[in-house]
Design a protein that fits this description.
Elements lengths: L4 H12 L8 E6 L5 H12 L2 H4 L2 E6 L2 H5 L6 E8 L3 E2 L1 H11 L34 E9 L2 E6 L9 E4 L1 H6 L1 H7 L4 E4 L3 H7 L16 E6 L9 E6 L8 E8 L14 E10 L7 E4 L6 E3 L3 E8 L13 E8 L11 E12 L16 E2 L5
Parallel strand pairs: 1-2, 1-3, 5-17, 7-8, 7-9
Antiparallel strand pairs: 3-4, 3-11, 5-11, 6-9, 6-10, 10-18, 12-16, 12-17, 13-14, 15-16
The structure holds 3-phenylpyruvic acid (PPY).
């Protein structure tokens, strides 16, 4: 593992002074090995200073929510959004539900308060955020999917395809045009779906025939298993297909966060909000009405919230994950729950040069093409 000089000496000082117990570092990711999350976790590990990386292990979790609610992980990797299929709903739902609830969010009922003003301690009102971890950075991974099946199975045999719902959504065009009769089945992860094709004892409600099944996963998933072949490659709807993964860490204080060299970007802050009116701040009365200032928004991700039993006829309530430009740290009267600042960004995989023409079905490479 390559150490980065500046950060390594910083880390060494911390290790020597006993500030950090580097023996218990865990990076939790959506497993099993061979998922996209696993690739990102390995990349993140390679960015850590040597002293920290050598005392850090990767830990596979069965679902995205179990990554985020992992009690002891010091680092967590979760997908946030994809350039083709959009938000990763399980990530949003877990971030929002573990941060927001009427009992754990006393400020939600107050009618006016000022928006978070710059910094004090970043952990002051964050105790209910995801296991005391905060967002610290992000890694964007280029995603190229393959279709895999048991050895000897060809595309014309396929009657069902299983994968993570993001992967199924990113390959819709291929699925609809090449195997339109195939049923799709959501699975917890891409690599998990691939592995399941080999499991003869799997309790399968749909009674699916193994020889008629395929899974969408990364090429790397096949490094971990024997018995599967690639039957089509590069099957995502766009060659430029990217997923943005969040990196969360226990090390909240800026002096403890390792910022990979050359990867600084303008910071963005993440907040969980119960209502969009919590966006407003600094409401100062004036002759023309209240002037409302909202920090520059990068994105608002909305998800259904649990229904409110006291007003059953309300429109479906929503919760929001909001991303602001800048490092906006919590103040005591802050509305919403602070989830951290992404202060660095690593891009894995180059952008594909496109000549402006749309990808056709013929561009999808079929391997063992008996279709
Ligand atoms: O299932 C995986 O491999 C994941 O890491 C989740 C995912 C699935 C598809 C695209 C990006 C992330």
């Amino acid at each position: 593992m390559q150490a980065e000089s500046e950060s390594s000496s910083h880390a060494r000082r911390r290790v020597e002074s006993g500030q950090n117990d580097t023996t218990a570092q865990v990076i939790a990711y959506l497993g099993p090995q061979g998922t996209y999350g696993h690739q990102v976790a390995k990349r993140y590990l390679s960015l850590l200073p040597y002293e920290i990386a050598s005392a850090t292990r990767l830990e596979s979790c069965p679902t995205i929510s179990s990554v985020l609610t992992h009690r002891t992980a010091t680092h967590k990797i979760v997908p946030l959004e994809n350039s083709i299929h959009g938000s990763v709903t399980e990530t949003l739902d877990t971030l929002l539900s573990s941060s927001l609830s009427s009992s754990s969010h006393p400020s939600s009922s107050s009618s006016s308060s000022s928006f978070p003003t710059p910094p004090q301690s970043s952990s002051s009102n964050t105790s209910k955020s995801i296991g005391d971890t905060l967002i610290i950075g992000e890694i964007t991974l280029r995603i190229q999917h393959v279709l895999v099946a048991r050895k000897g199975v060809s595309l014309s045999d396929i009657r069902w395809v299983r994968s993570h719902e993001q992967a199924l959504g990113q390959c819709k065009r291929f699925l609809n045009s090449r195997i339109p009769h195939a049923k799709t089945q959501k699975w917890a992860s891409t690599a998990g779906a691939a592995l399941s094709l080999l499991d003869d004892n799997e309790n399968d409600d749909l009674q699916l025939e193994r020889e008629e099944g395929a899974a969408i996963c990364s090429r790397a998933a096949l490094d971990e298993v024997d018995g599967l072949d690639i039957i089509a490659e590069d099957i995502q709807d766009e060659p430029n297909n990217y997923t943005r993964f969040l990196v969360l860490s226990r090390h909240h204080s800026i002096s403890d966060i390792h910022i990979p060299q050359d990867h600084h970007t303008s910071p963005t802050s993440f907040w969980a909000l119960e209502t969009l009116s919590d966006l407003t701040c600094n409401q100062t009365p004036s002759s023309s009405g209240p002037s409302i200032s909202i920090p520059p928004l990068v994105a608002v991700y909305a998800r259904p919230a649990p229904p409110d039993p006291t007003s059953p006829n309300e429109r479906t309530p929503k919760w929001f994950l909001v991303e602001y430009n800048g490092a906006i740290k919590p103040a005591p009267d802050t509305k919403g729950v602070y989830l951290g600042v992404s202060s660095w960004h690593v891009q894995v995989g180059d952008k594909v040069q496109q000549n402006g023409t749309e990808k056709t079905d013929a561009d999808v490479a079929l391997v063992n093409n008996h279709a």
